[in-house]
Amino acid sequence: MLREVTALRYVTPLREGGSLPGVVEADDLGTYVVKFRGAGQGPKALVAEVIAGELGRRLDLPVPDLAVMHLDPIVARAEPDEEVQELIKASAGANLGMDFLPGSLGYDPVAHPVEPALASRVLAFDAFVENVDRSWRNPNLLIWHNTLWLIDHGATLYFHHNWPRAEAVVHRPYKWDDHVLKPYATALATEGPALAARLTPELIGETLALVPDEWLDGGDRDAYLDHLVKRAAQPAAWLP
């Protein structure tokens, strides 16, 4: 199970995010970046965050801790911004929280070279989860305490936006031409297959079990498992 916390205070919006995430203080004294179920991307973005984020963690990639953030709409009363008020009111219940990394810097590929093995593992991971949002334009990487951190996986697993077509694209190749870490991923020939070998049905199932039921539609959990296990079984189709 993911750690469960309760929102106490909405601190500030992060308006650079398309889904209007916000910084929220919780009852465990922690501060989180929260993605809200009431945002335009809906619960599927939260599902993708958990599956991709927790899968990345189990593959030893640096992903901030995730939590289920329970939100009472009463929190909106202290927020003067009407747009944020409406978002909070529409997001009652379970939302997705990610540990806030205070003082972190946005990743700059020129200023922050990445060790080839790590860069190659990140690229292979992104290829598996079909991350379309790790380009030089929007890398979704942070530098915190001189360490690279992977954030914002809501745009992964985009097959789940069209389940009737999901079977046809299960082995879809990954377009990596503008991946921000491509110049550093010189160990991909060895690191890619090594990462793919760790994508067992057991590991994928363990990750899927962390997704709250209320974010899923009925049998979706089995559909995710079937799709991801089939994709993992043929890494030659998706590894760059």
Question: Can you describe this structure?
Answer:
This protein is α+β, with helices and mostly antiparallel strands and 240 residues long. The protein has 2 domains: 3-99; 105-238, no CATH class. The chain contains 8 helices and 8 strands, in the order E-E-E-H-E-H-E-E-H-E-E-H-H-H-H-H. A hairpin with a 2-residue loop joins strand 7 and strand 8. Helix 1 (43-58) crosses helix 6 (201-208), helix 3 crosses helix 5 and helix 6 runs antiparallel to helix 7 (220-232). The two termini are 33 Å apart. This is HipA-like kinase domain-containing protein.
Largest sheet: 5 strands, mixed, barrel
The pLDDT mean sits at: 95
Total number of β-strand segments?
8
- Which structural class is indicated by helix and strand composition? alpha+beta
- Through-space gap between termini: 33 Å
| pLDDT < 50 stretches | none
| Secondary-structure element pattern, one letter each | EEEHEHEEHEEHHHHH
Q: How many helical stretches?
A: 8
Work out the count of structural domains: 2
Strand-residue fraction? 15-25%
Share of residues in helices: 25-40%
Please state the overall shape, judged from the principal axes of the Cα atoms. Answer: globular
Oligomer: single chain
Q: Strands of the largest sheet, in order across it?
A: 1-2-3-5-4
Radius of gyration: 18 Å
